[in-house]
Each structure stands twice: as structure tokens, then as C-alpha cells.
Amino acid sequence: MITNKEHIIKYFESGIKDTKDFKIGIEHEKFLFDEKTNKRVDYPTVLKMFSLLSEFGWKPIMEKENIIGLQKKGKVLPSNQEIKLNYQVIS
């Protein structure tokens, strides 16, 4: 139970990594829009795109029976609830 500010500070301090464990990452967000309607695409449209990308070696990231993103050689292309795509590279 949190009873004072120090409890919160200790919680976040416990997650601090040693500098030898630091990694550099980049995140680039792209929102997908339907050209005809100018509205954000729906999840089935994202799944079609993921299906096409699988032909280029991208593998699905599953959450239960749902594809929530793709991964390939240390790169991740996740989809989230707002149907945006994040491109992440972690080295």
C-alpha cells in the first residue's frame, strides 16, 4: 500500500537499469487512413496488411488468437487499439 511519496519514488528507482544494460531504441508512429473516406482503417484492414507483409518474412505476434503485430530480425511492427502502427528497432 502506498502511504507516502517515498513509496512511489522507491518503486520507480527499483526499475532503474545499470548503464551496462542500456539500449538505444527508436519508435516511429504511423496512423493508417483509408484514401477514399479519409477515416482511420479498421482492424481487418490491418490484418490484410499484416498478411501481405508475412510474404516478406514478418512473423505474427499473437495475443491469444489475435495477431497484435509482426516481428522480423529484432524489429517489431505492433498494432494497438487505436489502429496505429509503431515501428520499433531496439539494438
SSE map:
Layout: H1 5-13, E1 25-31, H2 43-54, E2 59-63, E3 66-72, E4 75-78, E5 84-90
Antiparallel strand pairs: 1-5, 2-3, 3-4, 4-5
Describe the structure concisely:
The protein has 2 helices and 5 strands, in the order αβαββββ. It is α+β, with helices and mostly antiparallel strands and 91 residues long. A 5-stranded antiparallel β-sheet has the order 1-5-4-3-2, with helices on one face.
Descriptive account of the structure:
There is one protein chain. This protein is an alpha+beta fold. The protein contains two helices and five strands. The protein has a five-stranded antiparallel β-sheet, with helices on one face. A hairpin with a 5-residue loop joins strand 4 and strand 5 (84-90). 3% of the residues are buried. The model has no long low-confidence stretch (mean pLDDT 82).
Keywords:
91 residues; alpha+beta
- Structural shape: elongated
Tally of helical runs? 2
Helix and strand succession?
HEHEEEE
- Please provide the count of β strands: 5
CA gyration radius, whole angstroms? 18 Å
